[in-house]
Amino acid sequence: MSFRPTLPLHKKSSTAWLARQSRDPFVKARLSSPSSYRSRAAYKLIELNDKWGRFLSRPSLRSVVDLGAAPGGWSQVVAENFGWTFHAADNAEDFGLREETKVQKRGSWSTEPMNKTTGRGKIVALDLLPMMPIPGVQTLQMDFLAPGSARIVRDALKSSQNPEGTADIVLSDMAANFSGSKIRDSQMSLDICHAVFDFAKGALTVRAVDERGKTSCGGILLLKHFAHPLLQEFRKEHLEPNFHLVHYIKPDSSRADSAEGYWLCRGWLGRA
Fold first, then answer.
1. 181: phi then psi, degrees, rounded to nearest 5
2. 224 labelled catalytic
C-alpha cells in the first residue's frame, strides 16, 4: 500500500490550522497532561474505552496489537490500562534500530520489556516509523502486511496464559495523507480497512462456547474509517458477518468537521 506525502500548507491554511489548534481543548489537555500523551488521538481512545464498556480494562484481557502505532498515543493508553507507568524507559538505547538489529542485539523478536515491575499482559505496536519506547509495549518497526509479520506478532504475544499468541484486541487509528480528492481519499480509507481486516482475521481470539456452555468474549477490532458509501459496503460485507456486534462511533474528541468515525467490532467469530 502506498501513501502520498503530506502536502505543504499554504500560509492561509497554516494560520487557520494554528488557530484551530490553539482553541482545541484536547490539544490543550495533551500539552498540560502529566501523562504526556504523544498525540491528541489518545483522548479518542480514552473516550471510546470509557463510554463503551471499558473494553481495555477487562481483567481477562491478555494481548493487544496497535497497528500504525506511531507516535504511540494509543499504545500509551493501552499500557496505562494494563497497569504500566510512564516514568520508566524500556530499552531506550534501542530507539531507531531496525528490528533485524534488535534481534541480533537481544536474541529474540519477542524479548520481554526491561524494568517489568507493575504491568500485565502483552502489548505490541507496529509502524514503519520508529517509536520512542513505552513501558510495557514492544515496538516492531515493520510493515504489518509483510510476509512473516503475522508470525512475528504471534511470537511476541505468546505467554503461559496465551500460548497461541492470539490478540484479544486489534487497534487501528491509521489514515492516509489527504489528497484533496474525495474519491481518492475514500478509496485510501477503504484500502486501509481491508488491510487491517486481513491482518485481524488471522490474529484475533475467536469467540467460542466451552463444554459448560460459557461463551468467551472473542476478539475486538477498533477500526478508524472515513464515512462514504464504499465504507458502509465494507461494513456489511466484512465486519457484520464476522463479529457478534458492530458499533459505529463518532467520539466527541473527533473534530466535528471530519468524516472520521470508528467501528467497534466485538466478538470475532472466525468465519472469514
1. -100, 120
2. yes
Is-contact 171 129, C-beta < 8 A? no
Q: What is residue 258's three-state secondary structure?
A: coil
Cell of 161: 496464559
- Grid look-up 470508528 returns 262
Find residue 172's DSSP bridge partners. Answer: 67, 223
3-state helix, strand, coil in the chain (%, to 5): 35, 15, 50
The reply to whether the predicted model has a pTM over 0.90 is: no
Cβ 203 vs Cβ 95: under 8 Å: no
- Which of 230, 223, 224, 237 has the alpha carbon at shortest distance from 265? 223
Per the CB < 8 A criterion, the answer to whether 264 and 173 are in contact is no
Query: How far is the C-alpha of 162 from the C-alpha of 166, rounded, in Å?
Result: 7
Give the helix ranges, DSSP H, for 82-147: 99-106
Alpha carbon distance 50, 142 (integer Å)? 31
Q: What is the pLDDT along the chain (272 residues), one digit of tens a residue?
A: 444 433 444 555 556 434 444 454 544 454 555 457 999 999 999 999 999 999 999 989 999 999 999 999 999 999 999 999 765 344 444 444 454 454 344 433 333 444 445 789 999 999 999 999 999 999 999 999 999 999 999 999 999 999 999 999 999 999 998 888 888 999 999 999 999 999 999 999 998 766 676 667 889 999 999 999 999 999 999 999 999 999 999 999 888 888 899 999 999 999 87
User: Would you state the cell numbers that stand for residue 188, as one nine-digit string?
Assistant: 485510501
Instruction: Indicate which residue of 11, 102, 224, 236 is catalytic.
Output: 224
